[in-house]
C-alpha cells in the first residue's frame, strides 16, 4: 500500500476537546477512525476514547496482514465499544452514559469499507468532486429525507445539532455500512466531525483537497473553518489520505513491512491552533482519578474481546 495521510484535531472555542482520532495500518490493510464525544452528555470524551482504543487494538490484533471480513469487523467491534461503555457507566454508577458518534474506514486490496454512527462523516473525492458521502443520523437529515424541510435549511434548522443514533446510551447503535467502494490512485478519503463539515460547503471541501497532498490541503481546510467559527463553535477533527503512489508526495509505503506488524498513530489534540496540545487529563470536569479509571476500563474491555 502507498498513501499520504494527515490528521489533526482543534479544540476551537469549546472548554475542552471531546473528539478522538487515530489510524492504524498493517502491510496490506488500514483502519481510520474519528469519534466525536457528545457534549450534551457527561464524559463524551471517555466514550470517544473507548471507540478509538478498542477499534485500533482489535485491528492490531486481527489485521495480520488483512481482515477476513472488514464489514463484520466494523459491526462487531462498534457494538462491543457500545457494550464496553455501558459496562463502564454501570460500574461507575453514572446517571448519564457517555456517548459518541463514530465513523470508521478500512482499506485493503484497493477497496474501501466504511461504517458510521451519528453525524461524523466520510467523504470520497475523485478528480475534484465528491462521489460519495455518508448520510448523517441527524434529526434534520431525517426531516430533509422525508421532504419536511428544504436543503438550505439543513445548517440553520433548530434541530441541526440533534442526532438519533450514537454509540453509548440506552439503545444499541444502528451501524450504517456503506457499499464497498473501489479506490483508484489519486482518490482522496476524508473523515471528519461535524465541527469541521458544518462550516464548509461540499464543493469547497473537494476543491481545496484536490489542490495537492493532504499534508498541505487539510491545514488550509481547517484554517478556513476556523475563520468562520464563532463563540458557539465546536471541536474540529479530521483525518484524510491520498491513495496510491503519486509523484511529489511524502508517502507511507508498506511494501517492506513485516506481515505480522501493525502501526498505530493516535491523533493530536490541540488547543485553538496547531501550536498547542491538550492531554486527555486536561478535561476540566473529569478528575485525574476518573480518567485513570476510564483508561483502566478501556484496557479491561479490550482484553475481553474474543480473539
Kindly describe this structure.
The protein is of the alpha+beta class and 307 residues long. Helices cover 30% and strands 24% of the residues. The chain is built from seven helices and 13 strands. The strands form two sheets. Strands 2, 3, 4, 5, 8, 9 and 13 form a seven-stranded antiparallel sheet that branches. It has a six-stranded antiparallel sheet with strand order 7-6-10-11-1-12. A hairpin with a 2-residue loop joins strand 6 (121-126) and strand 7. Helix 1 (44-62) crosses helix 2 (70-91), helix 1 packs parallel to helix 7 and helix 2 crosses helix 7 (288-304). The protein is globular and about 55 Å long. The relative contact order is 0.23.
Features:
single chain; 307 residues; alpha+beta; seven-stranded antiparallel beta sheet; six-stranded antiparallel beta sheet; 7 helices
Mean pLDDT: 84
Per DSSP E runs of 2 or more residues, the count of β-strands stands at: 13
Number of helices: 7
The fraction of residues assigned to DSSP E strands is 15-25%
Taking the sheet with the most strands, its summary is: 7 strands, antiparallel
The Cα radius of gyration reads 18 Å
> What is the helix content?
25-40%
Distance between the termini: 26 Å
